Prior knowledge:
Structural class: alpha/beta
Shape: globular
Mean pLDDT: 97
CATH superfamily of the largest domain: Aldehyde Dehydrogenase, Chain A, domain 1
Strand content: 15-25%
Amino acid sequence: MYTDTLLFIDGAWVEGSAGAALPVVNPADGAPIGKVAKAEIADLDRAADAAVRGFAAWRETPASGRAETLRSAAAILRRDAEKTARLMSLEQGKPVAEALGEVQRGAEFIDWMAGEAQRAYGRIIPARSKEVLQLVTREPVGPVAAFTPWNFPINQMVRKVAGALAAGCSIVVKGPEETPASCAELIRAFAEAGVPDGAVNLVFGTPAEVSEYLIPHPAIRKVSFTGSTSVGKHLAALAGLHMKPVTMELGGHAPVLVFADADIPAAAKALAGFKVRTSGQSCISPTRLLIEARAYDAFLEVLLAAFADIRIGDGADPATMMGPMANTRRVEALEALVEDAVEKGARLLIGGKRLDRAGNYFPPTVLANAPVTARVMNEEPFGPLLTIQPFDTADEAIAEANRLPYGLAAFAFTKSSARARDLYSRIACGMFSVNHVGLGMAETPFGGVRDSGYGVEGGAEAIEPYLQTRFYTSLERPD
């Protein structure tokens, strides 16, 4: 069922101008499953020029018309959800059921943005003279260049595409070469729904080449990126040279504070389940577990038991609870982090080595009492690896939570609402979840602070990055 993926430029699926293609590999067994077309500079120019024409047509579509088109796209995505989920599982590795949930959440996000398209209000400012009219309008910023990762092929791309289209912008999106087919299904839904030719374009290629050409391109007026902090800083600097606004959804290193008054078994099971989602390859995945000392042993017992019960395998197998890592680089990176931590005094409690089978399999791994000098305590692991350590006071745990420059997601488990509010006020993060893992819904803001980026995707704020504010004033004279 897996077919080669083409570029989508100006309303047509096309090969790259040089006819080049990149291989796509199934991470469950390392076998090639297809190819994805590679864009050249000429293709990027075509996509950018098409976006200019698409913007001219799409921006004139009334908000109600844009909303109707978006809702049609959501319905098409739902119609083809099973097919898209299976493609995603093949190329990304996550279980089909998990992929299906991602597709369904993508459709929810499109529906949400359809509503926001009709709520991008301007306003009238009362003037100091009755003869003066003062208006504020909110208008689409223009063609957007967006760059999306492989860990959530639908949900990362849909936030940018639906947000831009809802505002009236056009977009050129560079999809992930590891997971092109599922991304293409999302773009196909928008095209079938009736988005004008050129309003949405999809390219693949050498990441640095594509970003460093599109961002300065005179046709592009806005940049949105999801990925690592190091790359995000580079792209933000490049956009700044050309005075282009950016949205940056970057890395994290999420702390979790578990207090002794919490429901300890429920907390441990919830965190274990959330940790293996997408094999831990998520920017909001819990990574640094801080457990109040008197609950530490009880929590650890449940956590390790929950991880031991995780069935690891091919995402196409309905019994699989956690699939492979997306590529061999992630396995090698995790092994290096574990080796470094153990050398520096951490205790390996479970996991720690790739599984002895074909494919990129790495088991849930827990390191206890890793020193702050260990790499894993400072670098986002981006896999099913976490550290755990006890704390005696809330101040001690908060200090560790804030020690790193990241500020994306943080979690706490406690029965005290007063303590939860105090933690929220003191921990630097863009999203804070208490007693559950309630992040990433269409109706809620998603974004970080500090080195985890800036700008929001999701919630009522999601349309804002794609709008610009303009002011009109006029001295109204009688005819």
